[in-house]
Amino acid sequence: MNTMTLWHISTGEFAALAAAALLVGFSKTAVSGANTVSLAVFAAVLPARASTGVLLPLLIVGDVLAVATYRRHAHWPTLWRLFPAVAAGVVLGTLFLVWADDTVVRASIGLTLLLMTAITLWRRRAAVQDEEPDAVVTRAGRVKARSYGVLGGFTTMVANAGGPVMSMYLLSAGFRKLGFLGTSAFFFLIVNVSKLPFSAGLGLIDGRSLLLDAALAVFVVPGALIGKWAVKRINQLLFERLVIAATVVGGAQLLLR
Length: 257
What we know:
- The protein contains ten helices and no strands.
- It is mainly alpha-helical and 257 residues long.
């Protein structure tokens, strides 16, 4: 990592990072996928590869707050289906980062997010969603879980962009609002913590990046509290539309950045 960059941040740049950190907290407890905007801000202020290492600990802070808020609503059968495939995706993402440049990473992830959004919208128009996310027990459900799991692990490793991927999977599986938030909270806490040694090994996390994280982490907490307040006032249909909109914006930003 170009750690010297972290010591030459202007007041305006720090304010932008602080606002992005606040949005991280909000996305973890309200509209999952909205943190793709944070990803774009961090990559604009810091070198793209270095920004992923700075952002990861802040995401973990948000994950801890989300688990504390929605832990009773997690759907563990779905999580157990996803984890092996996600682990494979993380390994693939690590290998990809060894040689891929930022342009290739951003373009491939952005296109994937937009394609998955289109597929999810088409599937939701063609089928009636169940109240319970029991599709994971069918053969088609298992194949879908593994496919999304690999892609989610890959995208979260290379660009911390796994949120929109898993948002599309959970919506397509028929999760209601609280089940969606509880399941994604545990999913990302476990996955993001598991990414720490890989990121450190790639030089994306070091002492100086952690000092910047310490200064920005205080902004994640109020964002999470705002999200907890807001989600109680968002109905299911609006919640789903916001998640999909955040995914589209995130995918477009990755392509245009």
